[in-house]
Amino acid sequence: MSTSSPSTQGWVLADAFDRAAPTYDAMVALSPGYHDQLLGAAGELLDRLPAPDGSALTVLDLGCGSGASTQALLKQWRTRGGAADRLSVTGVDMSEGMVAQARAKSWPAGVELVVSDAVTYLEALPDDTVDGILACYLLRNVPDRERLVREMARVLRPGGGVVIHDYSVQGSTRARAIWATICHGVIIPLAVVKRSDVPLHRYLYTSVRDFDSVARICERLLGAGLVDVRHRTYRGWQRDVIHTVGGSAPL
Fold it and tell me: What H or E segment, with its residue span, contains residue 154?
């Protein structure tokens, strides 16, 4: 899932996601627990939304990619008995190809899918206008992470919530070893077999290897003024590899 697009020696991340878009859903379907973990992150965000005041809650799904995280949000909303007309979700992604894949799916009224850089999109919003922000596999891909988190905090209404869901292996020798083994033994070879974008999957390895530690992600949220910052990881080999971090805007 992509946003502000890093560019290295002519290789542009958004272009790589465009190339990978047709095979993206098939690739992530092979990742154990991928969709369950998105549901977990979406549930964490819904837990942090302010109490409804009669109007629809406004949620952003930054780095929505092909729509899997947006679908997770809607599924959790329905599971909790939320009325369809009480939740407005805007999915934002830099990759036109990924958003095209998302738009090809069926969506209820109240869902909008936008091609945009996440930071640029946030900077166009007024203060205190968003109830919740979900950002799955996004922060790692943003060149100016401080600016992104600051903008997230700025647009949140008091009591609103942010959830960041991503890989992070910094600070854990075990997690770094597992990540290297999985990437070089499974993910990159599978990208070759599936004729997906192989450089993108090599980038996945290095971007996760070099990404913030969980402690640093928490520091970013706290530094932006968010409170009640909490973290959890997942079971099995993904323990200490995949993480969900949430924070709330103070009342």
Answer: helix 145-155
Would you state the pLDDT for residue 129?
96
CA 198 and chain centroid, separation: 21
- pTM for this entry: 0.91
Tell me the per-residue pLDDT of 42-58, one tens digit each, with 9 for 90 and over. 999 999 998 877 789 99
SS3 124: coil
CB 101 within 8 A of CB 90: no
Distances (CA, A) of 184 to 177, 187, 201, 220, 240: 11, 7, 10, 30, 19
Q: Which amino acid is at 68?
A: A
Q: Amino acid letter at 242?
A: I
Closest CA to 3 of 133, 131, 108, 168: 133
Distance, CA of 81 to CA of 73 (rounded, Å) = 13
Cα separation, 195 vs 181, whole angstroms: 21
Q: What kind and span of H or E run contains 204?
A: helix 198-209
What pLDDT score does 28 carry?
Answer: 85
Q: Helix 173-182 and helix 198-209: axis angle, to 10°? A: 180
Q: What's the 3-state SS for 13-35?
A: HHHHHHHHHHHHHHHHHCCCCHH
Let me know if 198 is exposed, middle or buried by CB neighbors in 10 A (0-12, 13-18, 19+): middle
Q: Which of 231, 200, 225 is nearest to 213 (CA)?
A: 231
Separation between Cα atoms, residue 233 and residue 239, nearest integer Å: 6
- Other CB atoms within a 10 A radius of the CB of residue 193 amount to 7
Q: Where are the alpha helices (DSSP H) in 156-196?
A: 173-182, 188-193
Separation of alpha carbons 84 and 185, rounded Å: 43
